[in-house]
Structure formats: C-alpha cells, structure tokens
Automatic annotation (TrEMBL), chain A:
Cross-referenced SUPFAM superfamilies: Periplasmic binding protein-like II (SSF53850)
Residue ranges occupied by any Solute-binding protein family domain in the UniProt entry: 85-429
Protein's name in the database: ABC transporter substrate-binding protein
Keyword RNA-binding: no
Natural source organism: Kineococcus endophyticus
Range of residues in the leader sequence: 1-17
Pfam families: SBP_bac_5
Superkingdom of source: Bacteria
InterPro entries on file: Peptide/Ni-bd, SBP_5, SBP_5_dom
Family of the protein in this entry: Belongs to the bacterial solute-binding protein 5 family.
UniProtKB keywords: Signal, Transport
Keyword flag Transport: yes
From TrEMBL, chain B:
Domain ABC transmembrane type-1: 95-304
Family: Belongs to the binding-protein-dependent transport system permease family.
Official protein name in the record: ABC transporter permease
InterPro entries assigned: BPD_transp_1_N, MetI-like, MetI-like_sf
Regions that span the bilayer: 12-30, 95-116, 145-164, 176-196, 236-261, 281-304
Subcellular location: Cell membrane
Keyword list, A-Z: Cell membrane, Membrane, Transmembrane, Transmembrane helix, Transport
Length: 516, 313
C-alpha cells in the first residue's frame, strides 16, 4: 500500500514547468524528513473545487482565487481564525485619534517582497490608492476614507471622513485588501503575483497552480517546501484522489459524505461553524410580499430544522439571525417557531387570499439553494402558497436580482467578519445589496448609529436592535449557518479550519516518514 | 479537385462570418452580465459603470461587433474579461489537452468499433451480434458523468492504477501523460465507440450485399479475400466521414468528461466562459469550433473523392 502511494505521489505529482529557475532540490531541508517533492521539503497537493478566475487580489471575487492568494499576499492586519479578532500582520501596532478620524499604523521591519524589493509604507499607500482610485471590487470598503499617507517608511496614516470603528476588519478581513509592491506592472497581476506572504507563485496552468516556500518570509518560515493547488471540481474525483494520496487536502466534500469521513481512520475531518449565512429574501417592492404580515406568515410556516437537515445533511446550524453562534457578535434572537395557525392568521390579517403563487429564484451554481427551495415548497403548501422554483444559472440569476425581477430568491453571504458586513449593505434603505428593497427608518437609524459608534459594547447593542428589527420585518428570512468542512490526510499537523474559510498553509506540516 | 477545394474554402469563409455574427448575437442576447458577475454579491453602482466602460460594453452592439470582427481578422481575438489573458493564448494553452483526449478517444472508439462492428455484420443475429447490440445500446444510453465516476471509483480508487483526475502534459512526463489520459479517453471512447460500432455494422452489411461482392463470391473468391478487398474498403468509406465528425465533436471539447476528470480542455474553457459571460473567450472558442468542423468536413470530402473514384470533383 505504502509503495503504491509513493509511486502515485511520484508519477502523479505535477512537475511544474521549469519557469523562473525552478529550485528543485535547492531549498533548505527543514529537517522534518519529508520525501522531497518538486519544491523539496515535502510535496503537498490541495484539491480545490474550481479554477481561480484570476490572481489579482484587488479584482477577483472568486473563493478559489482567495484560497491561493491567502498564502501569497499579506494584509496590514489579519482575522484570528477562531474569533475573527483583528491581529497584527504587516502592521505591528496602531492607534486611533480621540475623534476617531485618524488611524496611525506602525509597520513591521525587514519585510521583503518575493522579488526581493523591501516593503515600505509607500507600498501600502499604492495598494489602497489603487483600490480607491480605480474603483476596484472592494472600493466600498474605503467609502469613509479621506486619505492614505506615508509620513515615513514605517508609518501609514489613514484619515477618515467619519469615525469608522470597524476600519480594521475593512482593511484586513480577507486578501482582497492585499498589499502589493508599488513597482508592480499592473497588467501582469491577473496571472503573476508578487506578495510578501509565506509562499511565492511558481507556476500556473489550466489544471493547477503551484507555490514554493518563500525563504525570506518575514514571519515564521513555512514547513512545506511548496503547495500545489489542483482543480478537481467533481467531488468523487477529489475524494478518490485524497484516499489514494494523489492529494493530501480537499474542501470538496459534499454534505452527504461528511458522516462517512468522521470515522475514517486515514483522514482527519475539520468542521467549524462558518461565518457564512443562507437566507430567503422576499421582494418588499412587490405585492403581496410588500406586506410584512405576508412575509411573517412565510416565516411561521417554515420548519428551519427540517429544511437545514434536507439541504445540508446536518452540516449546518439553523439560525434566525445572520451571525453564527460562537461569534462574539452573536445575538440570541429566535422569535419564529413553526406555527401554521399563526401563519394562516397573518395571511388573513393581510387580506391575502390563497392559493397564492410565489416564485423562488435559485441557482444551479449553488445547488443547496435548489434543494432548500424544494423543501420550502413542501412546507408552504399547507399554508396555501404554491412555490414555483425558478432555477437559473448564476449570471442570469444576478441579472434578475439586479432588475428586481423576482418574488423571492435564495442565496448565501460568504466570509463576513464585522456585524456591518452582515447587516448594513443588505438592509439599509438604498443599500448597495438591498435587492429586496426593504426600507424601515428605524432600522436605518440603528445601522447608521452603529456604524460610527466607537464603544464596542454600545455598538454591539445597536446591531442587536437592528438585527431584531430586520428579523421581525423579515427583510431576510435567515435560515442557517453552514459548517466549513475540510478533510486532510491523517498525520498532517499545524492546520485548522478557520471560521472564515481562509486556507492558511504556512503552519501546516506533513507527517514525517514512518508515521503514516 | 482544386476547384472543389477553392469552392469549399469560400463556402467555409461565408459560414465562419455567419457563425461569428450568430455567436455574437446569441451571447449578448442571453440574460446575464459579465460585469455584474465579476462584482459578485458585493455590488456598487460606480464600480459597475467603470468596469462596463472599460470593457467597452457601453458601446452599441453593432459597433462592438465590428470592432471585434476587425480585430479577429488580424488574428487578435481580444482579451478575457476574467483573467485579462489574450483569448488566443487561452485557447492555445488548452489545445494539447483537448487534442490528446480527442485522439485517444477516437483510438479507443475505433479499437472497439471496427472489430466488433465487422464481426457483428458477418454473423447477423448471432449471439455475438446480439451482445454487440446490447453493449452499444448501453454505451449510448449511460450518461458520461456516471460512467466517468464509476471508472474513477474502480480504477483510481479501489485498484489505484490511474490518477482520479487532472492532466499531465506530455512534454513534462510521458508516463504521467498516458496514465492521466486513460480513464477520460475510455469514458468518451466508449460512447463514441458505441455509435461507431452500430455504424460499422450497418455499412459492412450494406457492402456485403452489394452486387460486386456477390459477383466476387460467385467467382469463387475466398471469404477472407472478399472481406478484405471488396467489403472493408467500401465499408470504411462512410466510416471515415463519421469518424471525422466524431473527431470534430471531440475537438470542441467534451464538457461533461472534462469536468469530471478535471481535464483542462476547450470544453471546460467554453463552459467557464459561458458561466462567467466571458464574451471574448466564448466568441473565440466558438469560432474555433466552427473552423475545426469546417476544416475536418473539407478534409473528409477531399479524402472521399480521393478514395472513391465515383465522386467527381
């Protein structure tokens, strides 16, 4: 068995094109005795579900891209993998002026980019200005920023138009806020990378991307010689590749397969409640869903536990608000129970006659929305609501969502960190993502006050009040928080699933030979 | 002969222009917006307008088409919305994988079809013929993705003979290339092979009943000689056509199999481009598929007239 596995590793492990002086066998042996792979110091292959669309961290929105970029670029601060508290990274410390309008960051010393140029404050200014001036994908995160300056090489000052207590999560929540080198040729960023992170981009093709250890990494040197990301969209292929040691890690685990891995001796299964949430949104600008009673009637007809079980096979946790249990911002508020009589009473009160047809727009790109809609249809039937499931591909889905052409839709929000990420753009009147056209002055006022409240406790209270209003009005009908699920070969150490699903391989170590 | 080639080439050019207009119209008619997609769920109007203008999508459609066509004539198919890479490069990058898979699949298909189809035709309604019919029915009806997953579970999982997915370029590692090629090629080859088996059987049957074969038999030629010389040569003619069409189809990528086996071919590229509404890549890919079909058709026709003296140019 071992011999075959090794053979498979040797023949199936991709030897990446000898671009840029591939350092086969030149890297320092970390002494953990791994079989030397393409990059030396242990070959590690991770199977991910999709090919990154591009590698420009400021432009991509694809999770697959961020899985790779996570290991290549750094941000000024990073979320803690469990609590999401912002911790130092390229910035070692920061302070805020008493009026909350000026933030001063001190930068780490002795950091170099992968191409050898030293990292300075000018690189931070360049990176942030690029996002702001070119209105790139994440420019909204700088909406309150007036200016970014560098008084000296080790200091960055961000001045604000109004207090922004969640500035740290805005600049550090994910690698979309990565620090690039100011000398970069921007036209190459989609396919090349030059970061300060633990691994440097070595090569990419249509089937895989490979990274090699960056020996001058400013923090702890990674234990792996390199990481190869193989794109295996078919779960059966990814999981077979894992069991045959063609790959050592994958997140392509369908919910119905999770149970079978829990007692599998050859792999470790990592599961945490993630910060993603999935929901149903009804069109507040379209009768009869503009009536809060109708939306509440639907909320009373839904059996969340059954729906979550059917859609996610026990790998998600039902929740009536957005923020998952375990987060410091979690708010225990669950006003709805499955109560058909109450649901019928509400419909009557709204003067809505049944049978009533409700189109629910879902997308085949996120199959769990299709499953969830099927369950929802059966749950709303006794109430006299006929659900018409409208399955679209994601491009069409987004198009219809943008035009407001729907009765209701289902989707999830991924990778949120701060409560503002969970509630502001989606539920404030005229919010950029308020496609359901929900509008309540009380909610707006609470969200506006929460956005500038410097005191954490007071801020949490404001968001709780806002969340309560949003849930009561059924702006979104929150359903569940899915678990982040990943599996890897037994014996791998130094790796944990993060609640934001960022995949950090810089502390991961392969088992030493003889204990696998 | 040359007259035919010139006439057919001119026809092909007209078809290509037609295809390019149809493709352009279709991809822009389909709902969905590449800019909206690129922004994902975090939408911002200012960003959206800026991106649209940068991609030239705010221009009138006709102007967009002529701009694209003009560049295409000079061999410039534009750049991908998603990655910013030149479309030509993206297509070229995937040709080796597609060509490997198409070639290997046709090989598998012919290895199945010619012996099995011929044997069935020589003994119609025998046990062998019945078995062949049933097998090719199964091959035609079983969905490719299911077949692919089964092959993965058995030959990659249980037996561990081949990788479960992925592609190894021939230039890097010939042995790895072959190993990565076997399962996807068998999956598509079984399907193509089933189609070609039925076809071989009927064309051999037809050839056997032809007059000159009856004459040859009456002259007392041995069965084997008759088969080799008179039957197969005639029977293989139509097979050339069908194989050409199958090859063209395979060269435009076998989407389902490419997804299952993580095979970085043109089918996968086309699918990703549709999903992302990456118009330049999609237009370039469809143009190439049309070109492949036209060229292979032309080659088949020319081969035909070379092989069959009855067809005059």
């Amino acid at each position: 068995m071992r011999r075959r596995a090794l053979l498979a590793a040797l023949t199936a492990s991709p030897l990446v094109a000898a671009s840029a002086g591939c350092s086969v066998g030149e890297s320092v042996d970390t002494g953990n005795g791994n079989a030397a792979g393409p990059a030396g110091g242990g070959a590690f292959v991770a199977a991910i579900s999709a090919q990154p669309d591009q590698l420009d961290p400021h432009k991509t929105t694809a999770y697959a891209s961020f899985q790779v970029l996570e290991n290549v670029y750094d941000t000024l601060v990073v979320p803690n993998g469990k609590t999401l508290e912002m911790e130092p990274s390229l910035a070692t410390q920061w302070d805020t002026s008493p009026d909350g309008l000026t933030w001063t960051f001190r930068l780490v010393e002795g950091v170099t980019f992968h191409d050898g140029t030293p990292f300075t404050a000018a690189d931070v200014v360049f990176s942030y200005r690029r996002i702001i001036d070119q209105e790139l994908a994440n420019s909204a995160r700088f909406a309150t920023v007036a200016d970014v300056t560098a008084p000296d090489d080790r200091t960055v000052v961000i001045t604000l138009k109004r207090p922004t207590p969640n500035l740290l999560s805005r600049i550090g929540a994910f690698k979309g806020m990565a620090i690039l080198s100011k000398d970069v040729d921007e036209s190459t960023l989609a396919t090349k990378a030059n970061g300060t992170g633990p691994f440097a981009l070595q090569g990419s093709s249509a089937s895989e991307i490979s990274l090699e250890r960056f020996d001058d990494y400013w923090s702890r040197a990674p234990k792996l010689g390199g990481v190869t990301f193989q794109f295996l969209p078919e779960p059966a292929a990814a999981l077979t590749a894992l069991t045959t040691d063609q790959v050592q890690w994958t997140d392509n685990v369908p919910p119905q397969r999770v149970a079978s891995f829990e007692d599998d001796e050859s792999v470790d299964l990592g599961r945490v409640a993630s910060v993603d949430y999935w929901y149903l949104a009804m069109n507040c600008a379209k009768a009869p869903f503009d009536r809060v009673e109708v939306r509440r009637a639907v909320a009373f007809a839904v059996d969340r536990d059954a729906l979550t079980e059917a859609a996610k096979f026990g790998t998600a946790r039902p929740n009536q608000t957005a923020i998952p249990q375990g987060s410091e911002w979690y708010y225990d508020y669950a006003p709805f129970r499955t109560d058909l009589d109450e649901a019928k009473r509400l419909l009557q009160q709204a003067g809505v006659s049944t049978p009533l047809t409700m189109g629910v727009m879902v997308t085949s790109d996120y199959p769990e929305t299709v499953t969830a809609a099927q369950v929802l249809a059966s749950q709303l039937e006794p109430l006299g609501i006929t659900v018409k499931i409208e399955t679209e591909d994601f491009a069409t889905w987004l198009d219809r969502q943008g035009r407001g052409d729907f009765d209701a839709f289902m989707l999830g929000w991924l990778g949120n960190v701060d409560p503002a990420d969970f509630y502001e753009e989606q539920h404030r009147t005229g919010g950029a993502n308020n496609y359901q056209k929900y509008s309540n002055p009380t909610t707006d006022d609470l969200l506006d006050r929460a956005a500038v409240e410097p005191d954490k406790t007071a801020r949490k209270t404001l968001y709780e009040q806002a969340a309560q209003q949003i849930v009561d009005d059924v702006s979104y009908l929150f359903l569940y928080n899915p678990d982040a699920v990943q599996v890897w070969k037994k014996g791998i150490t130094g790796y944990e699933v993060r609640v934001d699903k960022a995949v950090d391989f810089d502390t991961l170590a392969l088992p030493t030979r003889g204990d696998s | 002969m040359t007259g035919l080639a010139v006439r057919r080439t001119l026809q092909a050019l007209v078809v290509l222009v037609g295809v390019s207009i149809a493709t352009f119209a279709l991809v822009h008619l389909v709902p969905g917006d590449p800019v909206r997609l690129a922004l994902g769920t975090r939408f911002d109007q200012g960003t959206y307008d800026a991106l649209r203008a940068r991609a030239g999508l705010d221009q009138p459609l006709v102007a967009q088409y002529f701009s694209w066509f003009g560049h295409a004539l000079t061999g410039d198919l534009g750049v991908s919305f998603r990655s910013g890479d030149p479309v030509t490069l993206l297509i070229l990058e995937r040709l080796p994988a597609t060509a490997s898979l198409a070639g290997a699949s046709i090989l598998v298909a012919l290895l199945i079809a010619v012996p099995l189809g011929t044997a069935s035709a020589l003994r119609p309604r025998s046990v062998l013929d019945g078995a062949g019919t049933v097998l090719s029915q199964i091959g035609i009806s079983v969905p490719e993705f299911w077949m692919g997953i089964m092959l993965i579970l058995v030959f990659a999982g249980t037996l561990g003979w081949f990788p479960a997915g992925g592609y190894v370029p021939l230039s890097e590692d010939p042995v790895g290339w072959v190993r990565s090629l076997v399962l996807p090629a068998v999956t598509t080859g079984l399907v193509s092979g089933s189609v070609l088996t039925r076809f071989t059987r009927s064309s051999v049957l037809e050839a056997l009943s032809a007059e000159h074969v009856r004459t040859a038999r009456a002259k007392g030629l041995g069965a084997r000689a008759v088969l080799n010389w008179h039957v197969l040569r005639n029977a293989l003619l139509p097979l050339v056509t069908v194989t050409g069409v199958q090859l063209a189809y395979l060269l435009s990528g076998v989407v389902v199999v490419e997804i299952v086996f993580a095979w970085p071919g043109l089918g996968q590229l086309a699918l990703q481009s549709v999903q992302a509404r990456d118009y330049p890549v999609l237009q370039g890919a469809v143009l190439l598929f049309a070109l492949v079909f036209l060229v292979l058709n032309l080659v088949v026709d020319l081969l035909y007239s070379a092989l069959d003296p009855r067809i005059s140019a």
